[in-house]
TrEMBL record:
<dbReference type="InterPro" id="IPR016024">
    <property type="entry name" value="ARM-type_fold"/>
</dbReference>
<dbReference type="InterPro" id="IPR011989">
    <property type="entry name" value="ARM-like"/>
</dbReference>
<protein>
    <submittedName>
        <fullName>Uncharacterized protein</fullName>
    </submittedName>
</protein>
Length: 682
């Protein structure tokens, strides 16, 4: 049984369809053969998709209707303010249908007059006559209340309080929509009103007028209330009898817009500078469901919750401002001999995060202790129970909270996350997702966590190494099911691959952990499997194949190459175990990188890996021969040109590398040439 609703211009026309299968009841539940011939789209578990496709294909053979009938019905719906919020502009522009009231026009003009008084300017789009502009007056509330009293209805409806309350709620939803879509003035929307409002003197008349209007747009009330009585929005949302009730109703579209424009942030900050109550409100609104059919008709709950998660992210404290060391790792980290760390992309990302936080200083973040106590439990619930789009925002908020792994609060954060099972969940469940956006958010979060020693041990125990290797391994599906907008091959984005390998950089910096998955003497097959995955990521012929794109971002490719070579460098640390095993397989690829790469960071780490592997005498054989040296030389020349512009103090970091390089006979001449350029030696 299905009910189908038609889109405009048919409007509220419904069709009930019953589809009958002539078979035994047990077949419906126990056998899939019934559905095989249907060819339905969607998940295999969605057994009603097949019947739904059949129903969608049904249509009347003859349709004889009077188009004017639908126009009349649509006009009456517009007058009753019962059109979907997102459809007012479409009806107005396509069908020339809009509510036949002057109050919305007057309301918008008076709002513009208030904003104009404080410097706001915009062009009107309808060439409003001077007389109309004059008649509108200066009080927008007068026109809003007049619209409330203009409910179109027959006499019985006028005496029904439920109809009256629903009408008044729709009035404010309509006025909010009319303002926000810029119907009369190009730049006049809710954001413009909020921008002027937050700079007004709190004792001025205009402040109180705009405050009441913005509060009424949301129209929050308890469903059981007999009548809406205006109270400041902050008072209503702090009333636990209302906000914690399952009988609350409000205009979801207006609430979404005001959350997006940070209006709720400003009014709550005025009464509580710590933002404790604002954070508490966000966590409560996230899982609230407005009651009442009329309130839910225009409720885009997905967008509503998405905006709440974005505001929760904004509240997350940037831990660079709360003690601890920044631990922002750059290329100097690689130069100085440290083998864990992230590449310059991530360093710039961290700097950008800090700059954004400073530039947007008017949006104060929450105290970290309050954030951990109030918001983190909600973020954990989102990761467990909510759609992927909300999970991504929750994970980003946790990433921001863990931006400084050496912060004194990391111990508490890691302990709380581990007790709630979230670390095990994201590693063993979420990280196996085929959604690249979710996986990218996760690996960025894990990259921050794994720099903390306690978190590193927990994550390795949860099996993060194997899950990262599985994520990096390209393996086409057998007999993929081709669907619309579905890529059957598991291509992953370069940024995801790069961030994933950076996790292995930190893991392999620990001898115990790198020996746990890379021990050629004990498990040669597994060691070859690891090398195959790493080499496949940086081989120039595989980049487009692995990522599913023909053209790749050069900076992303360079970042990925640096991480892979850093992992190989870490794995080559155990002289008697790994150098010889890695050398024969890695040196040809490294030489090719030195010949073709233009990235200085890639050249530096490639040279370091070459020198590390050359400590095994058998690996030096791979460098002998004029042809191999001719390939090495261009890379060293590029590096040499880059070093001319480097500070002499930084150059000395390479002194040890150059000395060891000079011990290899074939490199001696090149080393002397580099030293002559750097140090001015002949």
């Amino acid at each position: 049984l299905i009910r189908r609703r038609y889109i405009p211009p048919e409007l509220d026309v419904f069709q009930d369809i019953i589809l009958c299968y002539r078979c035994e009841q047990t077949i419906w539940y126990n056998r899939e053969e019934v559905f095989d011939s249907v060819g339905f789209q969607g998940n295999d578990s969605d057994k009603v998709s097949g019947p739904r496709d059949i129903m969608k294909s049904l249509h009347p053979l003859h349709a004889e209707t009077d188009p004017l009938h639908f126009i009349r019905v649509a006009q009456q719906q517009a007058n009753a303010l019962m059109l979907p919020v997102s459809s007012y502009r479409w009806y107005r522009e396509q069908l020339k249908i809009e509510p036949q009231y002057q109050y919305g026009l007057f309301f918008t003009i008076t709002i513009y007059k208030i904003l104009q008084k404080y410097g706001f300017q915009s062009n009107d789009t309808l060439n409003i006559e001077k007389e109309t502009y004059k008649v509108a007056g200066k009080n927008p509330l007068k026109h809003a209340f007049a619209l409330e009293n203009a409910m179109p209805s027959v006499e019985p409806m006028e005496h029904n309080h439920a109809y009256t309350r629903a009408w008044k709620r729709r009035c404010w939803e309509y006025l909010s929509t009319l303002i926000d879509e810029g119907h009369l003035y190009d730049d006049l929307d809710l954001q413009a009103i909020v921008n002027v409002f937050k700079n007004l003197n709190k004792g001025s008349k205009e402040y109180h007028v705009l405050n009441e209007i913005l509060d009424r747009f949301v129209y929050v009330r308890a469903q059981k209330a007999t009548e809406y009585v205006y109270r400041p929005l902050t008072d209503i949302l702090r009333d636990t009898n209302i906000i914690l009730s399952n009988q609350i109703t409000f205009n979801v579209s207006s609430m979404t817009k005001l959350l997006k424009n940070n209006y709720l942030y400003y009014i709550f900050k005025d009464i509580d500078a710590t933002l404790h109550e604002y954070a508490q409100l966000l966590t409560r609104l996230l899982f609230i469901v407005p009651s009442g059919v009329s309130a839910m008709k225009n409720a885009n709950m997905k967008e509503f919750r998405q905006i709440i998660c974005e505001r929760i992210y904004d509240l997350a404290p940037n831990m660079f401002h709360y003690g601890g060391s920044s631990n922002s790792l750059s290329l100097d980290y690689f130069k100085s001999g440290n083998e864990g760390g992230r590449y310059q992309d991530e360093e710039e990302e961290r700097k950008e995060l800090k700059q954004n936080n400073d530039a947007n200083s008017e949006l104060t973040s929450l105290d970290p202790f309050l954030y951990i106590d109030i918001v983190v439990p909600t973020l954990i619930k989102v990761i467990y129970d909510c759609p992927i789009s909300l999970q991504i925002q929750a994970i980003k908020a946790l990433t921001k909270l863990c931006s400084d792994p050496k912060s004194f609060l990391m111990t508490k954060i890691i302990s709380d996350l581990n007790e709630q099972g979230i670390l095990s969940y994201v590693v063993n469940h979420s990280l196996t997702s085929r959604d690249d956006a979710l996986c990218l958010a996760l690996v960025n979060f894990l990259n921050n966590l794994i720099q903390n020693e306690a978190a590193l041990f927990i994550l390795v125990k949860q099996g993060i190494i194997q899950h990262i290797l599985d994520l990096l391994m390209w393996q086409p599906k057998r007999n993929p099911l081709y669907k619309k907008d579905h890529n059957p091959q598991p291509f992953r984005t370069l940024n995801l691959l790069s961030s994933s390998v950076s996790i292995l950089v930190y893991v392999t910096a620990n001898q115990e952990f790198r020996n746990s998955f890379f021990r050629p003497q004990k498990n040669k097959r597994n060691a070859e499997f690891v090398l195959d995955i790493l080499f496949s990521l940086i081989h120039k012929s595989n980049i487009s194949f692995v990522t599913g794109t023909k053209s790749s971002d050069k900076s992303a490719v360079a970042s990925l190459t640096v991480y892979v070579l850093s992992v190989l460098n870490n794995l080559s640390k155990d002289y008697d175990k790994n150098k010889k095993f890695i050398g024969a397989r890695a040196i040809p690829i490294i030489v090719d990188v030195l010949q073709t790469s233009v990235s200085r960071a890639v050249l530096e780490i490639a040279l370091k890996l070459v020198l590390s592997l050359s400590l095994d005498p058998s690996n030096c054989l791979y460098f002998r021969g004029e042809q191999r040296l001719n390939k090495l030389y261009p890379g060293l020349q590029k590096l040499m040109k880059g070093l001319r512009r480097v500070d002499p103090i930084q150059i000395r970091n390479f002194d040890d590398i150059l000395t060891r390089c000079g011990e290899i006979g074939e490199f001696r001449g090149i080393v002397e040439e580099i030293k002559s350029v750097i140090y001015g030696k002949k």
